[in-house]
Design a protein that fits this description.
The complex is a heterodimer of chains A (614) and B (344).
Chain A (H helix, E strand, L loop, with lengths): L11 H15 L1 H4 L1 E5 L4 H13 L6 E4 L5 H5 E3 L1 H7 L4 E3 L1 H4 L4 E4 L7 H13 L1 E6 L2 E6 L3 E6 L10 H4 L4 E4 L15 H11 L6 H13 L5 H18 L6 H12 L48 H13 L4 H8 L1 H9 L5 H11 L1 E7 L6 E3 L1 H8 L3 H11 L14 E6 L4 E8 L5 H17 L1 H4 L2 E8 L2 E9 L2 H8 L10 H17 L3 E8 L13 H18 L2 E6 L6 H10 L2 E4 L5 H23 L1
Parallel strand pairs in A: 1-8, 1-9, 2-5, 5-8, 13-14, 13-16, 16-17, 17-18
Antiparallel strand pairs in A: 3-4, 6-7, 10-12, 11-12, 14-15
Helix pairs in contact in A: 1-3, 1-9, 1-11, 9-11, 10-11, 10-12, 10-13, 11-12, 12-13, 19-21, 19-25, 22-23, 23-24
Chain B lengths: L13 H12 L6 E5 L5 H11 L3 E4 L19 H4 L9 E4 L3 E3 L6 H5 L1 E2 L1 H7 L4 E2 L2 H4 L4 E4 L7 H13 L1 E6 L2 E6 L3 E6 L8 H6 L2 E5 L5 H16 L1 H25 L4 E2 L1 H14 L5 H17 L3 E2 L1 H12 L13 H13 L2
Parallel strand pairs in B: 1-10, 1-11, 4-7, 7-10, 12-13
Antiparallel strand pairs in B: 2-3, 5-6, 8-9
Classes of the chains: A alpha/beta (614), B alpha/beta (344).
Chain lengths: 614, 344
């Protein structure tokens, strides 16, 4: 198997990608989708061209832009036709139009969670259920989805709600130039495999082996196992087998399960860290390699016992885990970091919200810069008047249009503009006071989160100790996630203050990029003793911290520094001044006082932001 | 009709299945919220439930599915006109219990109902076109990813779910119609929190996890695979099991009014709620109603302490005042309180 499929000489990432596109084209509906992480370029173009070639003649391949509206995506009222005919005409959404084919989501990492949820629902049900604009329709929508993921950072990826349903998570980052010249499987082979797919059978032993492989890799969602089974069938169809063989199953495990691994099969899962229930797609760089050449003896192994079967499968798949993921898996900490950032697509969602606000109400009046004409509601307002207006027009000798709309009918959708505030806690976890401070900071974070739903705010947490600062909780609104990351936060060690300020500034800049308003809250006594480069030494550490603080001030974020020392510390005060931060002495830093103070600062900064915008 | 995965073929997830059955037996319990990991069969279970519910009698032609035995004055549709002049019963029809999906992208006019655009444009008639709330009357309203639902839709739901009546005042239409439904919501708590008011509208809240033991995982995958390969055959194979559950619901409904609750059990329930500090009386009420429904499903004559124990987590876990500084989850706190009240 493996390389032969992608032609001789293909590099591992491309071999996997080429194999995945073939399997996906055989059963796009069953395999649901592919997440393709890559910037625009020849590799991605080649992959998409292959997909085009492989799909049956005439199967739709539709591109979905990121800014698509729900009415275009799912369907709605066709306004032009409605006006022309004088009665409601439904317009088919893009997903329904793509029935029997594949939709390609452009810039999927910017997709809103809402849109992702809708597409996910359509995948589950294989139909679009429309309840909009006075229409209630169900239309069959048997589609596969390709999500083009152009995320660069580790925290940029398509919403998990979507990728969780996809069979393949590919990364084309390491595809080489020469790969693209490698001859691919001819489309006829794919068509033949598709015809064969229905009749491919799967033994119960292999089904069990795939399930245990999923457990061994710590892939919690059962959905992934179901997808692996479908991939195994597609692989068998491609190879011309009537029954799924071990190598088909192993290929499926490598392509579907290995990229989602959260633990190494050989190692016991770390006790203190239960495996996260879901996995983001593999991050950049390396990529599932194709399974290594399968040893000859497996060919005759139909009578192999289940345990061996499972082990063999795991061994093959394990060899295909990307190096980077492998390194992270060996280091329990990194897995946690990945789990935390499991909320892809949030960036897109937040940005859209900030810009447009949430639609609040539809009111009479002419459209302005801040409102948008709502055509459906306008038509509704105009409808009862039609007979009268026609008579009126007839009296005045005007020709009438099908729908007589007057200025007074205009209805506009208003949006509530409210910039989301993100409070970033930067907590000094060093030294002896760490435990108390951390506990209270955790409390404050959770108190703020408890009413965040109403205020639409999010919270992030950066902790610093030892040599560097670490983003423990990327901006989130979910209490569940926050609690999970806050549990078992360690304390003690040096005080890398400069690194902390830099990290916090980075998180804050990220928030601002997503048009949120960041508010930074430092909890420290200001006694930095680790320089930016991680070396100990107070003078250099202080110098670095002051430099970072000055840089932070230039960025102009709303900042506050809570001095956690017993009595005011000159260094903390100086640092606050350099940062342009509000200084607050709160020796016992209790959670309630802290959240109150933070709330006051957030309100101020939101008001300031409002003035700027207004 | 689209083939859905049979209810009886769902592996494990007993708490969720029980909560849904309770909702079917006793609508007064007030809905079910299913929170849990992605891909654990939340929506599958709800859709499956729809197929095994016994049919219900309605006034034929009524767009609000009025109960023929109810007071016709309550119906705006003109059900009273369908009743004979001398109080004769109206014509009735047997229809499936509606399980209405409220999709995330739904617009407000489709949910509450709006002016019938077609009739208004073509005939100049001001007519009301009922929305999803009307369709869900006497049935189930299901919201997948309820925590992603837009705020203005939640506002509408909160009001209607509490009053059992949908009041529409828009485009010159002024109408009120019955909208009593069992609200079923599902979602993944990692994607956002639910507004406390909405949480409170759900009678039961169940937590659902991905199974971790190999045997049941294999069974899930095996059944799912069999269903995907040949839905019709799979549904046929499970039809008998599904029918059994349908009968169970019918029997339980018949038994429900006769279920007794002893004073001792009442007292224990109160004590439990007090200990947990649940807000208001709703918790206690839901606890007892749920316990009665479970007793009815069990074929018992009266509610026992065991029934209370069984349903307490689902009935109470979303009503605890959230103590953010207490890390232990609601379920753990309920377990502790149960130990204290019932001992071990």
């Amino acid at each position: 198997m493996s390389n032969a499929d992608a032609g001789p000489g293909a590099s591992p990432p491309w071999a996997a990608a080429a194999r995945a596109v073939a399997l996906f084209a055989i059963d796009p509906v069953g395999l649901h989708g592919v997440s393709l992480r890559s910037l625009a370029g020849p590799a991605r173009d080649r992959w998409l061209a292959l997909l085009r070639d492989y799909l049956p003649e005439g199967a739709p391949l539709r591109r979905v832009p990121n800014h698509i509206t729900d009415s275009r995506l799912l369907g709605g009222l066709d306004l032009a036709a409605t006006l022309r005919t004088g009665k409601p005409v439904a317009e088919r959404g893009l997903l329904v139009e793509a029935d029997g084919g594949v939709v390609v989501l452009a810039m999927a990492e910017r997709l809103t969670t809402g849109t992702a949820g809708r597409i996910g629902g359509v995948l589950d049900r294989a139909e679009v259920q429309l309840e909009r604009d006075g229409l209630g329709l169900r239309s069959a929508t048997r589609i596969g989805v390709v999500a083009l993921d152009e995320g660069l950072n580790e925290d940029e990826f398509p919403p998990i709600a979507l990728t969780d349903r996809f069979a393949f998570l590919l990364d084309l980052a390491n595809v080489t130039e020469s790969d693209l010249a490698v001859p691919a499987i001819p489309p006829e082979t794919i068509a033949a495999a598709r015809a064969r797919l229905e009749s491919v059978t799967l033994s119960d032993e292999l089904l069990s082996a795939i399930c245990s492989a999923a457990l061994a890799f710590g892939v919690a969602p059962v959905r992934a196992s179901v997808l692996a089974i479908k991939a195994a069938r597609a692989a068998a169809a491609l190879a011309g087998h009537e029954t799924v063989t071990q190598e088909d199953a192993a290929a499926a495990v490598s392509l579907v399960l290995a990229p989602r691994a959260t633990i190494l099969p050989s190692a016991e899962p770390p006790d203190e860290e239960p495996p996260p229930p879901e996995e983001p797609p593999p991050e950049d760089s390396s990529e599932p390699e194709p399974p290594p050449e399968t040893p000859e003896e497996q060919e005759d192994a139909d009578s192999i016992d289940p345990k061996e079967l499972e082990e063999m499968m795991i061994a093959i798949a394990q060899a295909t885990i990307p190096d980077k993921l492998l390194a992270q898996l060996r280091d329990g900490k990194a897995v946690r970091a990945r789990a935390q950032s499991s909320n892809g697509g949030r960036s897109g969602a937040a940005k859209k919200k900030g810009r447009r606000g949430r639609p609040s109400a539809t009111r009479a009046g002419e459209p302005t810069a801040n409102t948008r004409l709502n055509l459906i509601e306008t038509l509704r307002a105009a409808a009862p008047w039609q007979p009268i207006r026609r008579q009126e027009a007839a009296r005045e000798g005007r020709t009438t249009t099908l729908v007589e709309v007057r200025r007074s009918d205009f209805r506009c959708t208003h949006f509530k503009q409210r910039s989301e505030t993100t409070t970033i806690f930067v907590v000094d976890a060093s030294g002896s006071a760490a435990l108390q401070r951390l506990a209270e900071a955790k409390g404050a974070v959770e108190l703020l989160l408890a009413d965040c739903y109403v205020r639409r705010d999010s919270v992030a947490l950066v902790a610093f100790r030892g040599k560097t600062a670490e983003v423990l909780l990327p901006p989130t609104r979910s209490l569940v996630r926050a609690k999970r990351s806050l549990a078992g936060l360690p304390g003690g060690g040096g005080t890398p203050l400069a690194s902390a300020i830099d990290t916090a500034a980075m998180v804050a800049t990220g928030c601002r990029d997503r048009s949120q308003t960041p508010v930074l809250v430092f909890l420290t006594d200001g006694q930095g003793n680790i320089a930016r480069d991680g070396t100990p030494g107070r003078p250099q550490a202080e110098k670095d911290a002051i430099e970072s603080a000055q840089a932070l001030r230039v960025a102009g974020f709303a900042t506050m520094l809570i001095d956690t020392a017993r009595r005011p510390q000159a260094m903390a005060q100086k640092l606050a001044a350099e940062m342009g931060a509000k200084y607050l002495l709160l020796p016992y830093a209790d959670a309630h006082a802290m959240s109150k103070a933070v709330r006051a600062t957030t309100a101020e900064s939101a008001a300031a932001e409002g003035r700027l915008k207004g | 009709m689209r083939v859905v995965f049979p209810f009886s073929a769902i592996v494990g997830q007993e708490e969720m299945k029980l909560a849904l059955l309770v909702g079917a037996v006793s609508p007064t319990v007030g809905g079910v919220l299913v929170l849990g990991d992605r891909g654990t069969g939340k929506s599958t279970a709800v859709r499956a439930l729809a197929t095994l519910l016994p049919k219900m009698a309605v006034v034929s032609g009524c767009r609000y599915a009025c109960d023929p035995t109810s007071d016709p004055k309550n119906c705006v549709e003109g059900c009273h006109a369908r009743h004979g002049v001398d109080g004769q019963p109206p014509e009735t029809a047997l229809v499936p219990v509606p399980v209405v999906d409220l999709p995330l992208g739904a617009t407000e006019d489709r949910v509450v109902g709006a002016l019938d655009l077609e009739r208004a444009l073509t005939q100049g008639v001001k007519a009301f076109e009922p929305g999803l709330l009307a369709r869900a009357n006497r049935g189930f309203l299901y919201i997948d990813e309820v925590n992603l639902l837009e705020d203005h839709l939640i506002d509408v739901l909160l009001d209607v779910a509490a009053s059992g009546e949908n009041v529409v005042e828009r485009e010159g239409i002024s109408i009120r119609h019955p909208a009593r439904f069992v609200l079923v919501g599902s979602g993944n708590p990692e994607e956002g929190e639910l507004r406390p008011q909405l949480l409170d509208r759900f009678g039961l809240s169940v937590e659902i996890r991905t199974p971790t033991d190999l045997a049941s995982r294999i069974e899930v995958v095996r059944r799912r695979d069999a269903f995907d390969r040949d839905p019709q055959a799979f549904v046929a194979a499970w039809a008998a099991e599904d029918a059994k559950i349908g009968q169970l619901i019918l029997d339980a409904r018949a038994r429900l009014p006769k279920i007794d609750v002893s004073d001792a059990v009442l007292e224990q329930a109160s004590k439990l709620c007090m200990l947990l500090g649940t807000d208001g009386l709703r918790g206690e009420l839901t606890l007892l109603r749920t316990a009665r429904a479970v007793a009815a499903l069990d074929g018992a004559d009266e509610v026992t302490a065991e029934h209370i124990r069984r349903v307490a987590p689902s009935a109470l876990r979303h009503r605890l005042r959230r103590n953010v500084l207490d890390d232990s989850g609601s379920t753990v706190r309920i377990e502790r309180a149960l130990q204290e009240v019932f001992g071990e």
